[in-house]
Amino acid sequence: MTFHIITIFPEIIRPYFSKGVIGMGREKGLFDLKIYNLREFTTDKHRKVDDTPYGGGPGMVMKVEPIFNCIQAIKDSLAKKEKSLVILTSARGKVFNQKKAKKLVDKYQHLIFICGRYEGVDQRVAEFVADKEFSIGKYVLSGGELAALVMTDVCARLIEGVLGNEESLISESYNQEEFDYPVYTKPEQFKNWLVPKVLLGGNHGEIKKWRDKHRVQKN
Ligand SMILES: C[S@@+](CC[C@H](N)C(=O)[O-])C[C@H]1O[C@@H](n2cnc3c(N)ncnc32)[C@H](O)[C@@H]1O
């Protein structure tokens, strides 16, 4: 799997992919990340990626041409038989979730994310360039970079080998019908807050019973 991220702020994306399980997964070559600076796909001397909205109104709108040029360049670089999907990050899109992530990981070799900024992206990108429009929640971010990072992180965890211990993936919340169980570590007592006794006893049957009982949602 290769994640392609199109942004005007490449420096926001890079550090995230150098740390933790995601960083290690990339280092091991379990997936690849390519970041594209949108300004490099402009054709004017000012490298303009935005302009004023038709019909008036506040703020600036991201232009369709550089985004189209970038997507074309990415698609031209892919092998013919590889499947790719272009995702526009958008507060108005369908809300992304674990199920959608699993489908994408199973089906595509390339996920291409477009990060919007300003007042948003020229609607022709949603209509003619992107295949899907995804939101990461019902709120407005300043840009699509966080959304692209959230979605790539969720997908990357599902790639075989990325999590050191595959068991974590099986028991994780949202990968099954139930939520993950609460976890504790040393010390047994901090202030007067105690770890449940059953977890200290080594009775695996009882531990399983306790964990199953506590797989509950908080909201
Ligand atoms: C300031 S927002 C634009 C918001 C737009 N004017 C609106 O009200 O829907 C700039 C960019 O951030 C990204 N964005 C904002 N909220 C998002 C969300 N909840 N999920 C995904 N991307 C989001 C999109 O790429 C968007 O084009």
Adjacency order of strands in the biggest sheet = 2-1-6-5-7
Which CATH first-tier class of the largest domain would you pick? Alpha Beta
The CATH H-level homologous superfamily of the largest domain: SPOUT methyltransferase, trefoil knot domain
Largest sheet: 5 strands, parallel
Q: List cofactors, ions and other ligands.
A: S-adenosylmethionine
Give the distance, in angstroms, between the N- and C-terminal Cα atoms: 33 Å
Helix content: 25-40%
- SS-based class: alpha/beta
SS strand fraction? 15-25%
Instruction: Enumerate how many helices there are, as a single number.
Output: 8
CATH topology of the largest domain: Alpha/beta knot
Output the radius of gyration: 21 Å
Number of strands: 9
What is the helix/strand order? Answer: EHHEEEHEHEHEHHEEH
Extract low-pLDDT stretches.
none
